[in-house]
Amino acid sequence: MATTSAYRVITVDDSEIAVQQANNCGADPASFADDSAINDLEIEDSVAMTIGWEVCFNSQGIAVMAPGVNVIQLSERNGGAMGRTANLNVLRGGSIDLQISQ
Question: Would strands 63-65 and 54-57 be described as parallel, antiparallel, or unpaired?
């Protein structure tokens, strides 16, 4: 019998994210376990992101943000060459919108 899982992506700090899995997105946060097949992912040193967010992808691949969080912001550290920022918005229904500004 096949099983499906929910996967959540969470921030470890402003330059690292982790991927964890559980039975569903509504599972107790303590029941999510690191997925050994996916190592912690590091963001380039020149990029900073907001911390304290999580996105959960249910077994159908639909993205669900944690309550109270709807935007993840990425920005170049120290203003970068162009001082760009990007806002990643998870919309109702699980679609993702990426807006980049210069």
Answer: antiparallel
Please list, residue by residue across 15-34, b when 16 or more beta carbons sit within 10 angstroms of its beta carbon and e when fewer do.
Answer: bebbbbbbeebeeeeeebee
Fold of 6-101: minor pseudopilin epsh fold (3.55.40)
Averaged pLDDT, groups of 10, the chain, 102 residues long: 79 85 92 82 78 86 75 70 74 76 74
Q: Domain limits of the chain?
A: 6-101
Query: How far apart (Å, rounded) are the C-alpha atoms in residues 71 and 89?
Result: 5
CA-to-CA distance for 22 and 9, rounded, in angstroms?
12
Question: What is the model's pTM?
Answer: 0.73
Using alpha carbons, list the distances in angstroms from residue 40 to 17, 20, 60, 94, 101.
6, 10, 23, 23, 28
